[in-house]
Amino acid sequence: MAVVYGDVTIVVDERDNLFYTRAALQAHRPAEGRIAVQPTPASGSPAALAHDMLYALGKPLAPGPNSPDVWLDSVNAAWLAAAAWGVATGVRHVVVPRSHLLTIRRIDQLLAWREMTGAQLTLLWQKAPRGLPPALARVERRISGRDQFEALLAEPGPIPARPSFPPATPAMTGAAEVEMGHSPTRQPPDALPQSMKPRRQAHPCTGAMATAQLSQPAPALELASEDTTALATLAHPLIAGALSVLAFTRVGLGSLRFTRDLDITGAVSAIKLHGVGHRSCPLYAVPAWARPLLAGARAHHRLTGQPGDSVFAPVLVAEARHLRAHAGRLPRLDLTRPAGMLVP
């Protein structure tokens, strides 16, 4: 049987029938907005389930004891990254087999992720339903049988099955542009640490949409397919977005310091960068391969509830060590820059 709570569905498979697990795994079709997340068994890492979600989204963490993805060992950072990628790539339905093995804390994390993304969540509870946690106690409707489960997997879900590039508030110019706001969105279960909160920057330079009405964006540099693939698999959306910009523009890290939400067009087709004193603020075309990465960075920024701040500020602190660590693993792109390039 299946118990449905709004956009959360519990499929009770008390006999652990292989059919349900197999159907859930076969339903993993990211291009259609549906993913299957397989929890890592017996993992004690607090962020393990968020890492499993990132893996299902095609964003595996870099391996090794000195991994540059150490930032994502934080529960808050990992779930925020998973939520940003879910929004940016248009995930509409997430199926989690063997969810009865999850702790109550991790179930709460999943429910919080669903609240942030608006996606439908289906949990396979493969033991007696009496073990359901209090968070899943309210029953709205029940369905039963294999046909009903397959029909559930085939439903379109609440989010379109296509990349989601949510447009910004209509473009404004001058100082008014800096003051625009967005509706606050929910954060992961715990409050974001102070180190993750971007520093507020304000300046009168117009945004990308206003600039695009006056001038054509500079063309993006071409990259080899293996390089774009390497960038597309980076787990943290801010790192993937920032390094993609550095790759197709060949600017220094300091050029990202003042990049606001307004500096990325609604369709993620152009980005505006800012030089010292805003004497030179060029507009660049965003290549197709980089659009989902910048959409992920923008979604991450909006989920923090700090719309007026710099999009990439969190990865530019501490000499941008996270960015530099990942850049060092992409030598073909030659993304490393002297420390002096960090601050314009």
Low-pLDDT runs = 168-203, 338-344
Q: Calculate the terminal CA-CA distance, rounded to whole Å.
A: 60 Å
Number of helices: 11
Could you give the order of the helices and strands? EEHEHHEHEEHHHHHEEHH
What percentage of the residues does DSSP assign to strands (E)?
Answer: 5-15%
Number-wise, the strands total 8
**Going across the major beta sheet, what is the strand order?**
3-4-5-2-1-6
Bin the helical content.
25-40%
Structure description:
The protein has 344 residues and is of the alpha/beta class. The chain has helices at residues 18-26, 48-56, 75-88, 104-117, 146-154, 175-179, 208-212, 225-232, 237-249, 291-303, 321-328; strands at residues 2-5, 8-12, 34-36, 93-96, 120-125, 141-143, 270-272, 283-285. The strands form two sheets. It has a six-stranded mixed β-sheet, sandwiched between helices. Helix 4 links the parallel strand 4 (93-96) and strand 5. Residues 168-203 and 338-344 have low confidence and may be disordered.
Characterize this entry briefly.
The chain is built from eleven helices and eight strands.
Secondary structure: elements and pairs:
Elements: E1 2-5, E2 8-12, H1 18-26, E3 34-36, H2 48-56, H3 75-88, E4 93-96, H4 104-117, E5 120-125, E6 141-143, H5 146-154, H6 175-179, H7 208-212, H8 225-232, H9 237-249, E7 270-272, E8 283-285, H10 291-303, H11 321-328
Parallel strand pairs: 2-5, 3-4, 4-5
Antiparallel strand pairs: 1-2, 1-6, 7-8
Helix pairs in contact: 1-5, 2-3, 3-4, 3-10, 9-10
